[in-house]
């Protein structure tokens, strides 16, 4: 959530973000509402002061009927204006939650197709050597979508045998890499309250794009990413500058309806309703967030280079950014089956957008208290990573070559 004073002082930047992120919000209406709130707030403060003055005059003796009547009228007016102020503040806060974060100057403008390739790495495997991951996994009895659908519905599945072991190996390897990079490993709740969900800024552009599964009768939703509970970890806390940056890596199941994905690649494990993911998360000083963004990206690149999976890094265009992100990188792996790049991981700088909503602040050494900056990035998204590994390591004879870095987690097997 953006600060209302920041919006006033940086209106052009906020208007630009609203336009480029393709939200439909009137800042004029928002600021008009805030003007009304400020006016009522001043009246409330004046009435409270008058009330205290009257109360002071009533001490030490019998008050006059005029003073009693004045006090009564002040109390009645104050009650009405305080109620109006509360309503305006609630309305303003609700509307503020719909305003997206600003975008950095180096973010490309336009839609998904306008995202810019920053770099690429690796040798692309020819299509003639590649196998379709779903056909391959089904033929080896490694995945069962049919029974998954029978038990939980479409796009749920069972991982079996060597593929389940491969997922475990990728998880263990991912954990080792984030620990090596100085992150603290955590497991997290698989559900969060609406306060956390809203604080993270997961606001769909339209009502039919909501991605979360809600628990009926409870103020809870299944998480779409460990970013959600990790964001809430320090809610309503003041962090100490000497402890920053705080770097966490959360392992969780992720649940997504995948609303609004019509027309996107959905085959097999690439886009499913439940998958496991290891997520990196950082709380830092405002002046350090851009540096930390590049660090998270470097960790992601290191993982994919060590797995020897060819990829490219994309600077995501404004029209494809979510509400919280001021800038976002995607890593897309080269799919030799489809002969195109497909999304594998992402990392975002959310500046103070999430931390302000959840009241996460930092006490600097000078004594000044500022709102923290937050960042997130995928270390390993297991389902899509298994797709990438199969497409790049499966052989036509049916065997899967084990990537060198995963061998220690698979009893040093050369093939599966």
Structural account:
The chain is α+β, with helices and mostly antiparallel strands and 416 residues long. It is 39% helix and 19% strand. It has 2 domains: 71 residues, Helix Hairpins, CATH 1.10.287; 298 residues, BirA Bifunctional Protein, domain 2, CATH 3.30.930. It has 12 helices and 15 strands. It has an 8-stranded mixed β-sheet with strand order 1-10-11-12-15-9-8-4. A 3-stranded mixed β-sheet has the order 7-13-14, with no helix packed on it. The longest helix has 32 residues.
Observed structural traits:
single chain; about 425 residues; Helix Hairpins; alpha+beta; 15 strands; about 40% helix; BirA Bifunctional Protein, domain 2; elongated; eight-stranded mixed β-sheet
Number of domains: 2
> Helical segment tally?
12
The helix fraction, in percent, is 25-40%
Percentage beta strand? 15-25%
CATH topology of the largest domain: BirA Bifunctional Protein, domain 2
Amino- and carboxy-terminal Cα gap: 48 Å
The multimeric state of the shown protein is single chain
Largest sheet: 8 strands, mixed
Q: Write down the overall geometry.
A: elongated
Element order, helices and strands?
HHHHEHEHEHEEHEHEEEHEEEHEEEH
- Given helix and strand content, the structural type is alpha+beta
Order of strands across the main sheet: 1-10-11-12-15-9-8-4
CATH homolog superfamily of the largest domain: Bira Bifunctional Protein, Domain 2
Number of strands: 15
Low-confidence stretches: none
Query: Architecture of the largest domain, CATH level 2?
Result: 2-Layer Sandwich
Overall average pLDDT: 94
């Amino acid at each position: 959530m953006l600060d209302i004073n920041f919006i006033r002082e940086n209106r052009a930047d906020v208007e630009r973000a609203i336009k480029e992120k393709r939200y439909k919000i009137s800042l004029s209406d928002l600021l008009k509402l805030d003007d009304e709130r400020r006016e009522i707030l001043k009246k409330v403060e004046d009435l409270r002061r008058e009330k205290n003055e009257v109360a002071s005059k009533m001490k030490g003796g019998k008050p006059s009927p005029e003073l009693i009547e004045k006090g009564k009228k002040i109390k009645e007016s104050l009650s009405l204006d305080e109620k109006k102020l509360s309503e305006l503040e609630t309305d303003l806060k609700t509307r503020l939650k719909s305003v997206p974060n600003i975008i950095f100057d180096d973010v490309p403008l336009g839609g998904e197709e306008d995202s810019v390739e920053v770099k690429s790495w690796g040798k692309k495997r020819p299509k003639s050597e590649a196998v379709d991951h779903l056909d391959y996994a089904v033929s080896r009895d490694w995945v069962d979508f049919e029974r998954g659908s029978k038990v939980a519905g479409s796009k749920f599945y069972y991982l079996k045998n060597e593929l389940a072991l491969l997922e475990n190996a990728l998880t263990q390897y991912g954990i080792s890499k984030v620990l090596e990079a100085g992150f603290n490993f955590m497991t997290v709740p698989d559900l969060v309250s609406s306060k956390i969900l809203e604080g993270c800024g997961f606001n769909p552009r339209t009502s039919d794009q909501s991605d979360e599964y809600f628990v009926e009768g409870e103020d809870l939703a299944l998480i779409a990413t460990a970013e959600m509970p990790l964001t809430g970890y320090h809610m309503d806390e003041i962090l100490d500058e000497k402890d920053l940056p705080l770097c966490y890596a959360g392992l969780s199941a992720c649940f997504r309806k995948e609303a609004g994905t019509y027309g996107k690649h959905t085959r097999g494990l690439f886009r499913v309703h439940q998958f496991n993911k290891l997520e990196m998360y950082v709380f830092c000083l405002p002046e350090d967030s851009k540096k930390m963004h590049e660090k998270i990206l470097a960790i992601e690149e290191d993982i994919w280079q060590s797995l020897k999976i060819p990829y490219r890094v994309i600077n995501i265009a404004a029209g494809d950014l979510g509400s919280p992100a001021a800038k976002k990188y995607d890593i897309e792996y080269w799919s030799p089956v489809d002969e195109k790049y497909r999304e594998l991981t992402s990392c975002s700088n959310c500046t103070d957008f999430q931390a302000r909503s959840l009241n996460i602040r930092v006490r600097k050494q000078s004594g000044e208290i500022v709102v923290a900056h937050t960042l997130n990035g995928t270390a390993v998204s297991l389902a899509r990573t298994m797709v990438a590994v199969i497409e790049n390591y499966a052989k036509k004879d049916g065997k899967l070559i084990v990537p060198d870095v995963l061998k220690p987690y698979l009893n040093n097997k050369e093939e599966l």
